[in-house]
Design brief:
The structure holds two protein chains of two kinds. Chain A is mostly beta strands. Helices cover 0% and strands 53% of the residues of chain A. Classes of the chains: A mainly beta, B mainly beta.
């Protein structure tokens, strides 16, 4: 079983749409959870951390279900600039310094 | 905003040659990492480095690979006797209160 599993997509949505990505992780000892964004052939960039209580950052909402080992990301009012690959990432050690375990990524294409 | 700097941005090398990928982490960070991403695949952890020694390494990081912090600013990844399957993007990162990735070195082995 993959450590972090995501639907690779692609998700093709029109501007303004709401889109949701899901992710599951296999290690119940995972401690910290993140969504990263990666543009083509660029480095991963932190989009947001994910907390058990759920958290929101503007148009982005992240949820964590530890019991189901499931993480989600909701993007509202999609913009053309949201087109990218979204990476689900977990750590087993320290949230700030432990190694990151990446999912394959889910590709989003927002069309005019 | 502080950056992690990687050089070169693109390196082409012949199979069997040695390459050194260079990174300058953020100056007050103490934890350093190398990750790689083969085209079309996920980002994979290679090695972490703290207090001048390897703190963790993956199965990928075999005897072909080594890391070094030769001075107070650089952090290098050496790949000996490169193979075609070493072709990938190699990302350096540093961390103190959160990760910062460099923009990567694209290594092409021909």
């Amino acid at each position: 079983r993959k450590e972090v599993e995501q639907d690779p997509g692609p998700f093709n949505v029109p501007e303004g749409a709401t889109v949701a990505f899901n992710c599951t992780y296999s290690n119940s000892a995972s401690q910290s959870f993140f969504w990263y964004r990666q543009d083509c052939r660029k480095e991963p960039k932190l989009l947001m951390s994910v907390y058990s209580s759920g958290n929101e950052d503007g148009r982005f909402t992240a949820q964590l279900n530890r019991a189901s080992q499931y993480i989600s990301l909701l993007i509202r009012d999609s913009k053309l600039s949201d087109s990218a690959t979204y990476l689900c990432v977990v750590t087993v050690g320290s949230s700030n310094t432990g190694k990151l375990i990446f999912g394959q990524g889910t590709t989003l294409q927002v069309k005019p | 905003e502080p950056e992690v700097t990687q050089t070169p941005s693109h390196q082409v090398t012949q199979m069997g040659q040695e390459v050194i990928l260079r990174c300058v982490p953020i100056s007050n960070h103490l934890y350093f990492y190398w990750y790689r991403q083969i085209l079309g695949q996920k980002v994979e952890f290679l090695v972490s480095f703290y207090n001048n020694e390897i703190s963790e390494k993956s199965e990928i990081f075999d005897d072909q690979f080594s890391v070094e912090r030769p001075d107070g600013s650089n952090f290098t990844l050496k790949i000996r006797s490169t193979k075609l399957e070493d072709s990938a993007m190699y990302f350096c990162a540093s961390s103190e209160a959160g990760y910062t990735f460099g923009s990567g070195t694209r290594l092409t082995v021909v």
